[in-house]
Design brief:
three-stranded antiparallel beta sheet; 7 helices
Amino acid sequence: MTRSHGDPDQEAEEVTLAVMAASRLLVAISARALASTGSTLTLPQLRALVVLRTCGPVKLAALASTLGVNPSTALRMAVRLGDGGLVDRRTNPANRREVILRLTPTGQDVVERVLAHRRTEIRALVERLPAEARAGLVPALKALTGAADELAVDPVDEVRRDAGLIDDPLDPTPPDASR
């Protein structure tokens, strides 16, 4: 990569290309982590499982919105994940028109194994960097995610915005019982 010598357009292009290369690397690491589990999950299915792990029980419509897919696509995904024993699908007892999704213990285990593998591979990569490169990487990545603002999707915030966070429909204890 050549230095831009102060040309903002060239500098922005160099940074763009570097971020795109890093993005491809991270996707490849995620794909390898997923493959390490021996499952036939796709990356979008893993993303759905991660949302469920992060948010807990979620309405199907909120999951669809968070993933940026239409509800019928999310339902097909939920059916496949349910058939694989990774997600529990139930009708919301409070509103029979809604489907509630919850990660099963098997689904939780798959997500934990994939994330642990991904973290291990990323850590090994980061440890190979010289100390000065590592020191500069943290503020640069924080600045990038900060600049993304609304583009950076926090699953909990996204699901909450869509009114998709709910009490666990599989927990027989009513939400008010502890009060």
